[in-house]
Each structure stands twice: as C-alpha cells, then as structure tokens.
Fold these 2 entries.
Entry 1:
Amino acid sequence: MKKTCFIFDLDGVLVDTAKFHFIAWQNLAMTLDIDFTETKNEQLKGVSRIQSLEKILAWGNKCISADTFKQLLTKKNEHYLRYVKGMTTKDILPGVMPVLNFLKEKECPMALGSSSKNAQTILNKIELTNYFKVIVDGNSVTKAKPNPEVFIKAAQLLNCLNSQCVVFEDSIAGIQAANTANMQSIGIGSAEILNEAHFVFPSFEEIKIPFIQSLMN
Ligand code: B16
Ligand code: MG
C-alpha cells in the first residue's frame, strides 16, 4: 500500500507571511484610494499576485494601464520582500516543527504547494527547504488556486494518487483547490471561513500526532 503524501501551503500555514501580504496590499490600496479590509483580504489568500491586484482594482472600480499595473505589482512585491528579508527560523508558526519532524521520521513524502513566487526565498530563510521532496510554487503553475493545478502537480511529482494526499491550507481558495483535486483538506484558521475543509484547526498547535497518524496509511 502506498504511503499518504502530505502537501503544505506556505503563507499562513508554515509561516505567518499572510500578515505581510495584507500590510503591503493595504498600503497599495490606500495609495489608490480603495477601501481594503481584513474581510476582503481573506479573498486574496492563496490567490496569485496578478489576480490579487485585479480583485483590488475591481473592488475600487479602477481602470489602469498595463504599464501601471506592472509597476504596482513590483511596488507591492518590493514592500512585501522588505518584511521577508528579516525572516528567520523563529518565524515558523508554533506547532509546525513537531508535525514536520514526525512526518520526516516516518519517511512520509512531503511537498510544498504554494501560489507564491517568493516561496523558495522564504523556505531558505526559515531553513525548511530540505523537508520537502517536491516544491511547487507560483513559478511552476499556470493557474492559481482555487484551480487545483498546484496540488495535482505536487502529487504527480511525489508519484502519489490525488486521493492519497492530505493538504494543509489557510485559504478558502486553497481548500477549494484541494477538494477539487479529490484530496483531504485540512484548514488552518477559522472554521467559519474555512467551512469547506474536511477538518479545521485554529492553528498548527492544535494538531496532535494521533490525528496525523489517523491520516496515514
Ligand atoms: P507572491 P500561499 C500565496 O501563498 C498567498 O497566500 C497570497 O496572499 C499571495 O498573493 C500569493 O501567494 C502570491 O504570492 O506575491 O509572493 O508571489 O498561501 O499559496 O503559500
Ligand atoms: Mg496560504
């Protein structure tokens, strides 16, 4: 029998970069005179950089040129990367390391499945690159979450059936992507927001090893 494979989202699951994305988008929205709240930010989690800006502009009923669009994307990313620059292993969210170490010890295949084009930079900063046999990020997919491409690609590269994959996600888009791929979805965050997930935990700290064992073949 094949082993269960575990796919981890990055932003908001392994590290709290979701707050940095929020600050950078909020700052950009402010300069465009667009109202941007935490509720709206939920709709950007897991969504690609380009689609995030498209959504913000639509919320503000703004039309801009292709050149300005590109400039704004660069501006947002530069602002975001200023926060990323200072990241260290201390930024790994509580409860993550015990689960990663347990899965590593049991030789369970693990992949990263992130929409971020900065995923590799962040993984290096927090020294987690070596935990993942496979890394699929915003540079290797053509369709962003909620499209399941990122997770399907990760499963293929792990040589694992979709139905044998477990996905940890903090975003509505990511949970939808995992469900569409016929994978088990574990939401990290609010049960109200992530109500489509198969299981939801407020944070990784609440995920105990017996639960992880219950997911394993
Ligand atoms: P970047 P994840 C996603 O990462 C973030 O949740 C989302 O807010 C961000 O817009 C997207 O990555 C693209 O990120 O601008 O760094 O390429 O949660 O899928 O790990
Ligand atoms: Mg995320």
Entry 2:
Amino acid sequence: MRTVYVNGEYLPETEASISIFDRGFLMADGVYEVTSVLDGKLIDFDGHAVRLSRSLNELEMNNPISKADLLEVHRELVRLNEIEEGLIYLQITRGSDGDRDFAFPDPETTVPTIVLFTQNKPGLADSPAAKRGAKIISIDDIRWGRRDIKTVQLLYPSMGKMMAKKAGCDDAWMVEDGFVTEGTSNNAYIVKGNKIITRALSNDILHGITRAAVLRFAREAQMEVEERNFTIDEAKQADEAFTTSASAFVMPVVEIDGVALGDGAPGRVAPRLREIYLDEMRKAAI
Ligand code: PDD
C-alpha cells in the first residue's frame, strides 16, 4: 500500500482524506503538477515548482508550502514508496470553508489542501510504446481559454483520450481555428526535414516543462526549431511527429487520423531527442 502526503502528514493511502466540501472536488478549483522519477531521483523538480507557483498566482491561491519543503516531501515519498521509476502527482486546491459557494472563500481563513502521491512505473524510460510510436486522432479543442494554468479541470482531455481509445488509437491532438493546440496531456510537434515545428507559448497551451528542455536540447544539437501554428493537414504530411510530457518524455507519433507518417514507424528525430532528453535529465536529476 502506498504512503501518501495530505496536509502535512504521511499516511497509508486508505487513511488519507479531505473534506467533501473541498473546492477541488466541488469546483475543480485546484492546480497540479506531475514530476517524473528516474533512478529514484526527480526530473526537473525546479521547473515544476516554478510552474506550480505561477498556476497558483494566476488563480489568486496561496501557496501552502515552500519550495524547499516541497522538495523534501517529493523525496520522502520516493523513499517511503521505493520508487525507482515513476511519477509524483501533486495537487493543491483552494481548500474548503465547509460549504458550497461560487465565490472564493476568504484566503485568510481557508487553507489550501495539498495532496501528493506516487505512481510506481517500472520501465517508464525504456517504454515499448515509445519504440512503437503512438497513433493519434484529431478532435476539436473545446477547452477554456486559460490552458496555460495547470488546473485539475481535465474532463475534456479525459473524453479526448476515450475518443482515441474508441477509434483504436492512443491519444488525441486538439485543434482550434484549424490549428493544432496540443495533445490531451502533452505538447505536440511535427518534423519537416531538419526543422521541428511546435505551437508558440500563449494562454492556448500548457507551457510544458518537458517542452522547454527538449527545445533547448534540440537547439544545442543544431536542429532548427520553429515556434508557430500548424494544421492537422500539415502534420499528416510531415516526416515525423511527436509529443512531450513529464509522464511519457518524448513520444514518437506514427499515425494521424489513419494517415501513416513516413513509413509508419518512429523516425530519426523523435527517438534521438528522447535519448538526449533522458540522458541529460538523468544527469541533472536531484
Ligand atoms: N500533463 N499539455 C497538457 C494539456 C498537459 O496536460 C501536459 C502534462 C503537457 C506537458 O507538460 P509537461 O511537459 O510539463 O509534463 C502539455 C501531465 C503529464 C498529466 O496531466 O499527467
């Protein structure tokens, strides 16, 4: 049984609880982060901590924990649950003032709820899915306008994942005004020649922590990076495509809406970026 962290306490998962009035539960009024663990160490903890602060600020929510303490909790959960490869899920909600109301409760008297738990995933880095590549479908992006904030409002992305599954695919890319925004839980890229193309940062997409690192490594490896919009049709004609996320690193995409990219197997660029990313991030892990 896992040991989880709730509001300052380490508890067996079956003994951990929060209020039924918690605004995370009632209103999806909360933010989250997912940090990966390789070799028992945290990948890009700093990036996730910085984005967490930003998400909280954007929603005028107090941060209940310092960065140093947050690092300690992450490390303690890795230790207690003996995680070599896996994920740490962190959620902070606006808490509960003991009732349901659309207006935010007084931040002076309502403390945020903080929950962390681990997900053990042996073989996360050496994933067969990454060797095979993902098949994706495209769906309309009908999410709200602040996708840069990492909120727990994940119903539509979950529905998108189910639409993909029903179509016999792995995931979905979302399209708005004709252009791809991002995947259900990852950022989206296409490759044409030596050029990596991905949508520029704005409120339309999550500012991926993996995205920042991968684009840095790509530029360091003399690959050309173009941050601009692209359509699903352009993606179908690309040499390669891939996604990035803390939970799947760099994942090649081999099929879009039934159209195979290249020869239908992972190409040259995405597997190379995956390897560079894993090597460099293992070295920098804490
Ligand atoms: N999802 N875009 C969306 C919509 C996401 O949900 C995620 C991450 C990303 C990639 O961000 P990062 O590289 O910081 O993980 C992009 C996490 C992994 C999840 O919901 O499980």
